[in-house]
Specification:
elongated, binds adenine
Length: 241
């Protein structure tokens, strides 16, 4: 997959692409990331990209002609052009998985007090990462890229993303490592038993327990299997004594 990020602040992405899993994914050619400075499309002497709002008011607005040139120069027939904005579709695990199907994403980061409304018509989709307003679309673009890249083949071990929170509509089960006993907190015995059937049952049940306690809204949306229903009933009994 190729991800192109159109931004006014290319420096913000330096750490993102040069560390950890994203760095390795780029090295292994799982994905390619290109950071494009929108300012390079400005016809202005000082590379200004914004102007005062029509109708008056405070602040500056990102110009649509400059963003149009940046998008047109970077999109191809295969691209999905996505605008990062708090007015977009709420981002989710499901949307991240849907985005893995594209060969190329062009992520457009809005900035300053706002952008010209006509920029919306240049995108295939708008994404919001949550109901709060950030200073720009750069962090959202990193969040979308990070969550999509880790789902691509060979980015991380397949089992890791299959067990993720949300991937099966449940929060992930608790994990432990050594020491087995620490400050009075012990690793559950079943995890040391070597009995994989029991371990799987424990993990599924604890996944259900966490979801029941922390995110009951997810349980309402999920169609439970027979085994999951039995485990949920056990959890409800245990949690309501
Ligand atoms: N830009 C500013 N805030 C944002 C948000 N919550 N999601 C996506 N893009 C944004």
């Amino acid at each position: 997959m190729k991800i192109k990020i159109l931004t006014l602040f290319p420096e913000m992405f330096k750490g993102f692409i040069s560390e950890s899993i994203i760095k390795r994914a780029i090295e292994k050619e799982v994905c390619e990331i290109e950071i494009i400075d929108i300012r390079k499309y400005s016809p202005e002497k000082h590379h200004h990209v914004d102007d005062t709002p029509c109708g008056g008011g405070a602040g500056m607005v990102l110009r649509c002609d400059i963003v149009d040139m940046a998008i047109s120069d970077n999109k191809t027939d295969k691209s999905q052009v996505i605008l990062m904005t708090p007015q977009g579709i709420p981002y989710s695990d499901k949307l991240a998985r849907d985005l893995t199907k594209y060969d190329e994403l062009v992520l457009v980061c809005g900035h300053y007090e706002g952008f010209d409304e006509r920029i919306r018509s240049m995108a295939n989709m708008e994404i919001s990462i949550g109901d709060y307003v950030l200073t720009g679309g750069e962090l959202p673009a990193m969040i979308v890229s990070d969550s999509v890249i880790r789902l691509l083949d060979n980015a991380i071990r397949k089992e890791s993303s299959e067990d993720d929170s949300f991937s099966n509509g449940l929060l992930e089960y608790p994990q432990y490592t050594r020491p087995v006993s620490y400050k009075g907190m012990d690793v559950p015995e079943v995890l040391l038993s070597g009995n994989h059937k029991e371990i799987n049952r424990f993990r599924l049940k604890e996944s259900i327990r966490r979801t029941y306690l922390k995110r009951p809204d997810l349980l309402e949306k999920k169609e439970l299997s027979k085994e999951e229903k039995v485990l949920l009933e056990e959890v409800i009994k245990e949690e309501n004594v």
